[in-house]
Amino acid sequence: MQESVIPYEKQIFVCTYAKDGSKRCGNDHQGESIFKELRRVAKERGVHPRIRVAQSKCLGQCDQGVNVMVYPDEVWYQNVKMDDVQILVDKYLK
Ligand code: FES
């Protein structure tokens, strides 16, 4: 194992997990679409990969709609919808 510094200024994790229909962040709640749009804008604005938008598996809060975590800000968004993407873009992808 080799210890290193985190190579990203910020990481935005979007839960896209959707297994068996019981974990709901992904397909049922547009997690995949939200991830793809945030990643697309991050690349378009040239902030990727300094600010990295990543998809995650289950974050353990499945009943809260799409979950989004932002590090190192330590902010957790629940029930994120496509309509909220612009808010996240304005706040984090600059
Ligand atoms: S499937 Fe997203 S938090 Fe569990």
Main attributes of the structure:
globular; Glutaredoxin; 94 residues; 26% strand; single chain; alpha+beta; binds FE2/S2 (inorganic) cluster; 4 strands
Helix amount, in percent?
10-25%
CATH architectural arrangement: 3-Layer(aba) Sandwich
Order of helices and strands: EHEEEH
Major sheet characteristics: 4 strands, mixed
Condensed summary:
This protein is an alpha+beta fold. The chain has helices at about 30-45, 85-90; strands at about 10-15, 50-55, 65-70, 75-80.
What does this structure look like?
The chain is 23% helix and 26% strand. With 94 residues, the chain is α+β, with helices and mostly antiparallel strands. The chain has a single domain (10-89), classed as Glutaredoxin. The protein has a 4-stranded mixed beta sheet, covered by helices on one side. The N and C termini lie far apart (33 Å). The structure holds FE2/S2 (inorganic) cluster. Residues 15, 17, 23-25, 58-62, 67 line the site of FE2/S2 (inorganic) cluster (FES). The site of FE2/S2 (inorganic) cluster has 11 residues, from loops.
Helix/strand layout:
Elements: E1 10-15, H1 31-44, E2 51-56, E3 66-71, E4 75-80, H2 85-92
The site of FE2/S2 (inorganic) cluster (FES) has 11 residues, from loops.
